[in-house]
Design brief:
The chain is mostly helical. InterPro entries: 6hp_glycosidase-like_sf, Glyco_hydro_47, Glycosyl_Hydrolase_47, Seven-hairpin_glycosidases.
């Protein structure tokens, strides 16, 4: 017993600080041991981080190899004479386009992987600082914006993980003042497109939830919506800097999404709200079809301000055409086409040419004064004109298509005339100088490649594919980092910013992918794109039989396209 007691006494003494004062050698050993332990733990943590980085890199490389292997297998099948039905469907899918499409797909995989790793669930990724930011109130904007791109590209494992986040984590009950416009085109549009493509009703349920929270914005005296709304409380108002006015593009760019939502839920309230806006604007629609960027929500009439096909005006005109297409060009939507054609006469009155190179551009207008300035945002117009040309008679159709091609050449040169081959935000035109960059940043915008996509689909001219490929290569050279993609603060110097915009995944990469895909993939006869590049199924106005619509949609997916998507990647 005495021996055991002595042992206990010794073991307890080592925890007594006085023990080490009597034996300093023991103190040194303890300190040395502690430091060694700290270094060992720290080294293991560093090794763990290094291991995670290496695993991520190897997984990404594995994904790329799998893409290459599948493409090789497809080519072997083709050379062996197999899948002849698929070949007949996709006879425009040449090997160069296949290779380029896969490069764009790999870029999407890189962007998405970076978002998953550093910003999962946040609105947008800041690649340089490797963190997420909530630019839109924490609605997972990049994730929701990317759903249909992932689906179309066949990235099904990534799509499934995103769907699970939508089902389990996407919560709209936030005390946050949201942009009605941005939330509609990105979130409502993204969810509806994911629903139309996959048939999964969780996307429709979520789209209805957020749309119900946005709906009070239309409760103005005229029905012209206020542009900002608190998602939790439903209180709506406009930006202070507009003088209380609503913005034209922000008020006239919700029709596609909410009409589609009414069709799919069989609840007319969404469609009624947005169609009232068009009816109100139609009352005082000008002879040239050009509305200024500010609309008074009390009276429903235009307020004196700039007329533009760039920022704050652009997508209003786009949606006049696309609602007509969405409604299957029937009598019920004829007035949309008529308003659009009137506006296109107005657009042509704003067209000028530069000297000495005769670049065609669209002016802005203040009163009777024309400003020789064009936003890159206005580069959606060539695609819109090309898409709308099909509704004219032969002579006028050729004229409109020719104008579209001229404007596309200008927009392409917005890119080609800078040192980085990326476009600035806007351009000014001066006699004898052609064009000069105004605001010199590039934030990965999609408008030019969007127009190239439409022009290629409508004309079959592969020149537009070449232009798109050159733009893609410029993004790869200047904007790609190990942690995602960033814009440029200055297209002349190439200095990078720290933001991967959600529309880069939703629009820019999707349009580039489709530019190199067979025309049967998201056919323009069956789908219409919202202004955030989310494809919505064309449904004849009044046809709300959604279940039949789903079955028909799934049956019409191209066999070759569907087959190539199955099990493409094992990336985690």
């Amino acid at each position: 017993m005495g021996k055991k007691s002595s042992s206990n006494s010794t073991s307890l003494s080592i925890f007594n600080p006085k023990y080490y004062l009597k034996k300093p050698q023991q103190l040194v050993l303890v300190i040395f041991g502690f430091i060694s332990l700290v270094l060992l733990v720290s080294d293991r943590q560093n090794l763990t981080r290094d291991h995670q980085e290496e695993v991520l890199r190897l997984n990404e490389e594995l994904a790329r190899l799998k893409l290459q292997l599948e493409d090789f297998n497809v080519r072997v099948k083709w050379s062996a004479g197999l899948d002849s039905a698929d070949i007949s469907k996709d006879d425009d899918d040449d090997p160069v386009s296949v290779e380029r499409r896969e490069k764009v797909k790999e870029a999407m995989l890189h962007a998405w992987t970076s978002y998953e790793k550093y910003a999962w669930g946040h609105d947008e990724l800041q690649p340089q600082t490797r963190n997420g930011v909530d630019s839109f109130g924490g609605l997972g904007a990049t994730l929701v914006d990317s759903l249909d791109t992932l689906f179309i590209m066949g990235l099904h494992e990534q799509f499934q993980r995103a769907k699970e986040w939508v089902a389990n984590s996407l919560d709209f009950n936030k005390d946050y003042v949201a942009s009605v416009f941005e939330t509609t085109i990105r979130v409502v549009g993204g969810l509806l497109s994911a629903y139309d493509l996959s048939g999964d009703k969780i996307f429709l349920e979520k789209a209805k939830d957020i749309a119900d929270r946005l709906l009070p914005a239309w409760n103005s005296p005229s029905g012209i919506p206020y542009n900002r709304i608190n998602l939790a409380h439903g209180s709506a108002h406009n930006f202070g800097w507009t003088g209380g006015n609503s913005i034209l593009a922000d008020s006239g760019t919700e029709q596609l999404e909410l009409i589609a939502l009414s069709q799919r839920t069989k609840d007319p309230k969404y469609q009624e709200k947005v169609e009232k806006v068009i009816k109100e604007l139609q009352k005082t629609f000008p002879a040239d079809g050009l509305l200024p960027m500010y609309i008074n929500p009390r009276s429903g009439t235009a307020a004196y301000s700039t007329i533009t096909f760039g920022a704050m005006g652009d997508s209003f005109y786009e949606y006049l055409l696309k609602v007509w297409i969405q409604g299957n060009k029937t009598e019920a939507v004829k007035h949309y086409r008529e308003m659009w054609e009137t506006s296109m006469k107005g657009l042509q009155s704003l067209v000028r040419k530069t000297t000495p190179s005769s670049f065609t551009y669209i002016c802005e207008k203040n009163g009777n004064f024309l400003s020789d300035k064009m936003d890159e945002l206005a580069c959606f117009a060539p695609g819109m004109l090309a898409l709308g040309s099909k509704g004219y008679g032969s002579g006028e159709a050729e004229k409109i298509l020719s104008l579209a091609e001229e404007l596309a050449w200008t927009c392409y040169n917005f890119y080609q005339l800078t040192p980085t081959k990326l476009a600035g935000e806007n351009y000014y035109f001066h006699p004898g100088q052609d064009m000069n960059v105004g605001t010199s940043w590039n934030i990965l915008r999609p408008e030019t490649v969007e127009s190239l996509f439409y022009l290629w689909r409508i004309t079959g001219n592969k020149t537009y594919q070449e232009w798109g490929w050159n733009i893609f290569q410029a993004f790869e050279k200047n904007s790609r980092l190990e942690t995602g993609y960033v814009g440029l603060k200055d297209v002349n110097s190439g200095i990078k910013d720290n933001m991967m915009q959600s529309f880069f995944l939703a629009e820019t990469l999707k349009y580039l992918y489709l530019l190199f895909s067979p025309t049967s993939v998201i056919s323009l006869d069956e789908w219409v794109f919202n202004t955030e590049a989310h494809p919505l199924r064309i449904v004849t106005r009044g046809d709300l039989h959604q279940e039949n619509f789903q079955v028909e949609r799934q049956q019409k997916l191209p066999i070759h396209f569907r087959g190539r998507k199955e099990g493409r990647l094992g990336y985690n």
